[in-house]
Hints:
The chain is an all-alpha fold. The protein has a domain at 30-141 and 411-597. The chain contains 28 helices and two strands. It has helices at residues 14-28, 103-112, 120-131, 142-156, 160-167, 175-187, 191-198, 210-226, 230-242, 249-259, 273-281, 296-304, 310-322, 328-338, 344-349, 356-369, 373-389, 393-404, 417-426, 430-443, 452-460, 471-479, 485-497, 504-512, 526-535, 539-550, 560-572, 576-588, and strands spanning 56-57, 464-465. The protein has a two-stranded antiparallel sheet. The longest helix has 17 residues, at 210-226. It is globular. The two termini are 39 Å apart.
Amino acid sequence: MIPFASPKSRRRSNKAAHVALAALVFLTSTVINVSTGHAGAKKDDAYRPPEGSGSTLHVPGSAPATAVLHDSLGPAVESSELAPVMAGDGSALPYELWRGVDIPGFEKLISEIEIPPRSPALHDLWKRLITSNVTPPAGQTGDVKFTALRLEALYRSGLVSEAAAELANASPDDPVVALFAARNALANADRNKACALSQHVVGLKADTPKVVIAQAALLNGYCAAVSGDTAGAGLAAELAREAGLQQTPGLAALDAISIGVKPAAKIEGRLGLIDYRLLEAAGAPPPASDLDKAEPALLVALTNDSASPPDLRLAAAEAGAKLNGVSPDALAAIYSALSTPQHVESLLSGSGGLAGAPRRAALFKAAEAERTPMKKTRLIRALVDDARANGLAFPVMMMLARTTAQVPVQPELSWFTETAAEIGLVSANYKMTYDWVALSQAASPDGSGYTHWLALADIAGANIEPQGQHLAELEVLAQHSRFSPDALNRLATVLDALQYMVPIPLWEIASRSPQPTTGYLPETGVLSELRDAAKKKEFGHTVLLAMKALGPSGAEGANMIALGDSIRALKRAGLEPDARRLGFEALFASWPRTAIN
């Protein structure tokens, strides 16, 4: 099956405590593999290039005059195709966000998806979805249980500040709510508040699920340990075992504290926040090399904890940024605060002895401070290259948008065009991309320059008029084998899903190339359910199903069929800007680049 086939062939008191408790049990007993503010301009910024350039950037919300799209006239408009009423909470999501989803369905879906999503585009959408202030999914006592589910999802996503805002409106006298709040305070590196709240995590009823009792025991054991109560730590370990808790690093730490020795537990599986704090209290904090097993909330806690060693904070911030648990702005703040000053030439050559995270932090701080354009661009480029090689390309490019915008667009810096174009696209600062590409066009004998980057900007949502005008450049690149077979098929899939009129030669070249069969493909029925939810304008349902369909690696690791259907569904549900960013993300890593610039 050709995944980009012709469009015609395809188309969320005691009763409150009980439901909060049920939500905590369900989610804490489910293994969820974990995977940030956007720097730069907003996605809906519009820019109009100078007259005579042949292009304009279209004002969001109005129909382009000469868009190159499928079905430009189309059938009569149905009620399901009308623009939705948007929520007034700043989420840029519809008011009827949870149409078609009840509480059990919401609970089931968030137990099946990767949170937080590894995909920056999906993470941005997920964060807006889970923090939106709209009517919750339908269901008995829906608002109470939904709040509990949302708190757990926020915690697992590393969104501890957002969870704290939600908890500010809840009563800490309820034991289960107190457990949520105490754990969240630990994630915010506030031990005193966490232990004050833990005093309310008592009096749990006899029918309280054992997993909750075990978590409460670990928390109370931690507070006993840090207050010097070794007997209390030992009692907490016994209570946790009685609740059925198997041997964990946290439990081993409690045992060691109770007898005055250091634990020697090997970290297996995920490393939780309370586990880490218990090991720390026992005098055996895990090394930075174990941070790849850490949950996002722990990484956020270590990043924000000024008492943690600088190298640990740096490592935690980078690990958190890779999971979208630490935002680009937070990573930039850590880089600026913890960087080691070094001479520019030593930094660029790598001869100064810095490597890894310390070198990246120093490069960022130096690039921010440098006033000479040539040196500034070299520092930016060195940091981008280092970040790309270490899985940090997106967060680092987002946080470099501000300093890149300070670089003058001038011929002497034309070698920097492609790097600036990339940073502009990743940060959604499309004017930056356009200005640097325009510089390359002026210097090119045939006026082409790096115009294929404008095609990617068009796909990403830059509102260039007329849409699709730069697809011809992609055709030329395809004819010269600048796209791998996988990248070419991925390009055709994205263009078709966004309803571009794919140039026939480009389509023919893609059709002749080997069809990829790899990538994540969800179980049977998920894509059909996704298409149905999008058609019915079930916005939240569509987003959750798209996350499920794309799998743990997001757009880059998805099968072509799942990728195309997910983009198509988001667009049809009225979330076109997000669909476009997802398409951009699927193409960015494999986009043709110059070998040397």
